[in-house]
Amino acid sequence: MTPDSSQDTRYRQALAAHGAELARCCHGYERDPVLRQELQQELHLALWQSLAAFRGDCSLRTWVYRVAHNVGARHVQHHAGKAQMLALEEIEHLPDERLDPGHTERRLDLQRVLALVHRLAPLDRELMLLYLEELDAASIADITGLSTRNVATKIHRIKALLASQLSATRSPR
Question: CA gyration radius for the chain?
Fold first, then answer.
């Protein structure tokens, strides 16, 4: 097998196994549909290019998330001046933003969570998106380069703040 066909094969395997996760990842990093499409293209190109160096030292899933994390982080940093980012301490003081009442309660909760996640600082957003993809703290640490304990602590704090904000939006005024 030539290097190009091996790379193409790994890329197809990665998409077959993790394509839906990558699409959700792009949606988590970018709200704007046009910029999301741009991010998705950047991510797929970066993934394909990176697979030439993939040697199996980690799982394919970890590799895919590492690439997605790096591309998403660059994207967020590039567009950071255009969007309002919030520190964890600031998120609990957000005003109540009512969403379209025509959706189901679960859909509303998901929209509320994503709206809050989109307003987090880049690193906190990345951690939460990986957590929402059901990765454990050790896997997230491997992807982000943070310690497992730091990841677990930050995720715990983010979850507590998101839960607090969500319960505030549900309570009657």
Answer: 17
Identity at 120, one-letter amino acid code: L
**What are the residue ranges spanned by the domains of the chain?**
1-83, 85-173
Q: How far apart are CA 133 and CA 129, in angstroms?
A: 6
CA distance 163 to 173: 18
User: Band of the pLDDT at 173, cuts 50, 70, 90?
Assistant: very low
CA distance 65 to 144: 9
CATH number of the 1-83 domain = 1.10.1740.10
Residue range 85-173, CATH number: 1.10.10
39 CB contacts (<8 Å, ≥6 apart)? 26, 29, 30, 71, 72, 75
Q: How many Cβ atoms from other residues are within 10 Å of residue 49's Cβ? A: 12
Q: Which residue's entry shows tokens 């969500």?
A: 166
User: What torsion do the CA atoms of 86, 95, 132, 35 make, to the nearest 10 degrees?
Assistant: -60
Amino acid sitting at position 86? L
What's the pLDDT tens digit per position in 21-53?
A: 898 888 888 888 888 899 999 999 999 999 999
